[in-house]
Structures are given as C-alpha cells and as structure tokens.
C-alpha cells in the first residue's frame, strides 16, 4: 500500500494488543484484503472466460476457489475492524493496492488460465506465509492463525492448479520422454 498511515489508522479500542502493534498488523491485513479481492475477481474472470476440452471442470473448479477467497475477504476485513482498524475494501482500492499483476485478457485455453492463476496463487501464497511470521512477531497469534488457515487452503489450491500442468512440465524437462516420477522434478 502506498499510504501506510491511511491504511493503518485506528479507532480507540479496549483490546489488549498495543496500538503500535495493531497499526502495523492492520496495514498488513489491508494489503492482504486488496490482494484477496483482486485474486477473487481474477479467478472469477477465469471462471467466466475459460474455454477448451476441460471447460466444465475448470469452470466449476475456478468458481469453488473464488468462493473460498470471498470468505477470506470477509474474514480479513473483519480482523482489521476487530483490531480497531479501518478496512480498505472497495474494488478501486483493491486494484490500486494489490501486489498481483493484472489478469491477462487475451487467453482462452484452459491450460493458459490455469497457468495464469497458478502464477498468481504462488505470489499470494508467499505473501500469506510472510504475514504469518510478521503477525506472530507482532504478538498477534489470532491474526497469525487466520493467516495459517488461509495459507493451508491456498497451498492446496496451488497444488490443484499445478496438477494440471506438471505432466507437461516434467515432459518438457525430460525432452520427449514420457513423464515417469516426481523425482524427475527439481
Ligand atoms: Fe458462475
């Protein structure tokens, strides 16, 4: 976020986490809120526009993932407010504050949509994992626990996405030889 003071502003609260720590935690959570909203709409974009022989299963999978992200949007925003913070959750704020790149608008095939989402889920997973450590260091085990819950699901979803790509990636690494075992992956 460009304006850290703005995104970390606090209301008075009786909560026992010091204001200085809460202000830093709120800033991290607002970054996550922007990225999660962005990733949810990008996943919906894939849900609507994917084409190809795997259309139906990808259309369904992307919708399921978008639904999970929608739940996390709410959980993250409400953790901000539970800490006395102000949630920055409009579409415009998400677009301007997200750590993720814009979704490619010129792709159609299922594999290209899966690749675009896997790239973005990997960046998002890294952000979430870093936030677990940061919020834990700031003395907020509850926010770290929320991030841990999100992290576990995002890693699983990255697996679901990459499982569509790994056979081709292993084959590419081994030349024309058929993919045999995961041990061939570095
Ligand atoms: Fe739909």
UniProtKB/TrEMBL annotation:
Which ranges carry the Ferritin/DPS domain? 27-167
Q: Name one Pfam family in it.
A: Ferritin
Superkingdom: Bacteria
* Record-linked PROSITE patterns: DPS_1 (PS00818), DPS_2 (PS00819)
PANTHER family assigned to the protein according to its UniProt record, in alphabetical order: DNA PROTECTION DURING STARVATION PROTEIN, GENERAL STRESS PROTEIN 20U
In terms of NCBIfam families, this protein maps to:
PRK09448.1
Q: Family per UniProt?
A: Belongs to the Dps family.
Q: What's the protein name?
A: DNA starvation/stationary phase protection protein Dps
Encoded by which gene?
dps
């Amino acid at each position: 976020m460009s304006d850290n003071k703005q995104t970390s502003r606090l209301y008075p609260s009786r909560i026992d986490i010091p204001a200085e720590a809460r202000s830093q935690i709120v800033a991290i959570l607002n970054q996550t809120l922007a990225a999660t909203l962005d990733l949810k709409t990008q996943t919906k974009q894939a849900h609507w526009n994917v084409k190809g022989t795997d259309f139906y299963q990808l259309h369904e999978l992307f919708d399921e993932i978008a639904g999970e992200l929608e739940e996390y949007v709410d959980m993250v925003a409400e953790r901000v407010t539970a800490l006395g913070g102000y949630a920055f959750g409009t579409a415009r704020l998400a677009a301007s504050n997200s750590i993720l790149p814009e979704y490619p608008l010129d792709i159609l095939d299922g594999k290209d949509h899966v690749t675009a989402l896997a790239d973005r889920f990997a960046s998002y997973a890294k952000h979430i994992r870093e936030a677990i450590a940061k919020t834990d260091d700031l003395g907020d085990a509850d926010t770290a626990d929320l991030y841990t819950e999100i992290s576990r699901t995002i890693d699983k979803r990255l697996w679901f996405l990459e499982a569509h790509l790994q056979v081709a990636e292993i084959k590419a690494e081994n030349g024309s030889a058929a993919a045999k075992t995961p041990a061939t992956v570095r």
